[in-house]
Amino acid sequence: MELWLIGIGTGNPDHLTLQAVKAINGADLILIPRKGEEKADLADLRRAICAEMLTNPRTILSEFDLPVRAAEGDYLNGVADWHDAIAESWRAAIGRHPQAMKVALLIWGDPALYDSSLRIAERLARHVDLSVHVVPGIMSPQALTAAHGVPMNQLGAPFLVTTGRRLRDHGWPDGVDTLLVMLDGECSFQTLKPDGISIWWGAYLGMPQQIVDAGPLAETGPGIVAARKVARARHGWIMDIYLLRRGPGTGMPGQGSAAGAGP
């Protein structure tokens, strides 16, 4: 069996590459995970992508419920147990369609960046004879910097992609002046001294409900915290990311950085 992990960008069908469209139409079975009522929009977006891009009448769409990660206990052990449970849910969903030899999952962004689908596929391969194929997708850092019209890096300088948890627990890493922060449910930039730091933030990037904001962290940070809270309450979920840059020459926000601007 072939397992195809197809990067679909940040939810906009226009983000799909031609390779992704071909892979979708080459699949015998496309699995659509359900994450509960609060995140029903995510399954709806996958269905919408298939409705727009799928032209192969033989491709089957099959939905399944994803396990929920335990909120208590050690984080890494909890994630490992959760991945085991997801792998089992994949195996059960595939087992309901034994004729399917090419199975696809639509992965937000790119399967290689802060997504566990490849690790879960390794677990599945312990029980199912399969080969794994990856179709790259537009990553949220690309969507963020495109929305704001700013580069990821300063001239000749590195940048670091990290998580809100690491920023909160360990502070600003040494050796870099530009950070791209993902998976941050607590606006961890609030733990930093804001002087000399600029922020470029975006939520629901590429979607109709896209929100972006940018400016000096001291001035812009509180507005981002408030906007994020309102948007999460309205939609039941939020996907966001931000770029932090410190020191002289941080530059002015790009033209796309008005709060509440659309795609």
UniProtKB/TrEMBL annotation:
Keywords attached to this entry: Cobalamin biosynthesis, Methyltransferase, S-adenosyl-L-methionine, Transferase
EC code: 2.1.1.152
Record-annotated Tetrapyrrole methylase domain positions: 3-219
Coiled coil stretches, renumbered: none
Keyword Iron: no
GO biological process: cobalamin biosynthetic process; methylation
Catalytic activities: precorrin-5 + S-adenosyl-L-methionine + H2O = precorrin-6A + acetate + S-adenosyl-L-homocysteine + 2 H(+)
GO molecular function annotations of the record: precorrin-6A synthase (deacetylating) activity
Pfam families xrefs: TP_methylase
Keyword Magnesium found: no
InterPro entries: 4pyrrol_Mease, 4pyrrol_Methylase_sf, 4pyrrole_Mease_sub1, 4pyrrole_Mease_sub2, CobF
PANTHER family referenced in this protein's UniProt entry, alphabetically: COBALT-PRECORRIN-2 C(20)-METHYLTRANSFERASE, PRECORRIN-6A SYNTHASE [DEACETYLATING]
Record's protein name: Precorrin-6A synthase [deacetylating]
Organism: Paracoccus onubensis
